[in-house]
Amino acid sequence: MSDLDLLTQSLARNVKRWRTERGFTLDVLAARAGVSRGMLIQIEQARTNPSLGTVVKIGDALGISITTLLDYEQGPKVRIVPADQVVRLWHTDAGSWSRLLAGAEAPGPLEMWEWRMMPGESSHSDPHPVGTVEILHVTEGELTLTVEGLEHRVPAGASVTFEAGTEHEYANRGDVPARWMLAVSVPAVS
Questions:
Q1: Angular region, 148: left φ>0, alpha ψ -120 to 50, beta rest
Q2: CA 56 to mean position of chain CA atoms
Q3: Pairing verdict, β 168-171 and 142-147
Q4: What is the rounded distance in angstroms from the CA atom of residue 73 to the CA atom of residue 122?
Q5: Which phi and psi (to 5°) does residue 49 adopt?
Q6: What pLDDT score does 31 carry?
Q7: What's the CA gap between 114 and 97, in Å, rounded?
Q8: Other CB atoms closer than 10 Å to residue 81's CB: what's the count?
Q9: For a disulfide at 169, which of 101, 114, 146, 182, Cβ 3.0-4.6 Å?
Q10: pLDDT in tens, 35-71
Q11: C-alpha–C-alpha distance, residues 152 and 110, integer Å
Q12: Other C-beta atoms lying within 10 Å of the C-beta of residue 93
């Protein structure tokens, strides 16, 4: 079975499991996530490979992390993610990428990411649920973080926190690759 097949089946099983656990019908989850009922049916039947944006919307609507949605094993309280199981979720032909390193439910989704962005590239993010906080530490180059239209330059060695319930963008306006670690904390669904 390929990695893609494994992820597709894990996503199908986990969306259905968490939707049922939350007591959401397909219609309720579709409305909360802004995803069509038909798309949810296809996902739960492992008949489609949705975009990263769709998976993020579903995770946010369920109040769980992407890691949990893609997890193919329910592990013990201590969970080590081997290097060969880190999931690359975004990349460009120029060499930019993001990798979801680990995640947990504490009490809402908590995710840790590693990003690499080549000069001149950017990545836009739709608003996360109100109360979501991101903490970012730049290890190489300089990140330009735009939140609500205001640019913030974050050089190597600096860290930043921000409320991510609004549109935001990560960009590399420099001439060398930029790298950063990012933690995302989403509030639990009430």
A1: left
A2: 6
A3: antiparallel
A4: 33
A5: -115, 95
A6: 96
A7: 8
A8: 16
A9: 146
A10: 999 999 999 999 998 988 899 999 999 988 888 888 7
A11: 24
A12: 7
Can you give the pLDDT at residue 75?
A: 39
Token pair listed for 177: 């690759």
pLDDT value for 82? 65
Report DSSP letters for 89-124, one per residue: EEE-TTS-EEEEEEEEESSSEEEEEEEEE-TT-EEE
Omega into 107 within 30° of 0, i.e. cis? yes
C-beta separation of 59 from 30 below 8 A: no
Question: What is the per-residue burial (b if ≥16 Cβ within 10 Å, else e) of 113-150?
Answer: bbbbbbbebeeebeebbeebebebbbeebbbbbbbeee
pTM above 0.85, yes or no: no
What is the mean pLDDT, run by run of 10 residues, along the chain of 190 residues?
A: 80 90 92 96 93 91 86 55 75 89 71 94 92 91 93 91 91 97 85
The β-bridge partners of 113 are 100, 182
105: amino acid identity, one letter: E
Helix, strand or coil, per DSSP, at residue 130: coil
User: Which pLDDT does position 113 carry in this prediction?
Assistant: 92
What H or E segment, with its residue span, contains residue 60? Answer: helix 52-62
φ and ψ of 109, to 5 deg: -60, 140
| Residue position matching structure tokens 């969306």 | 15
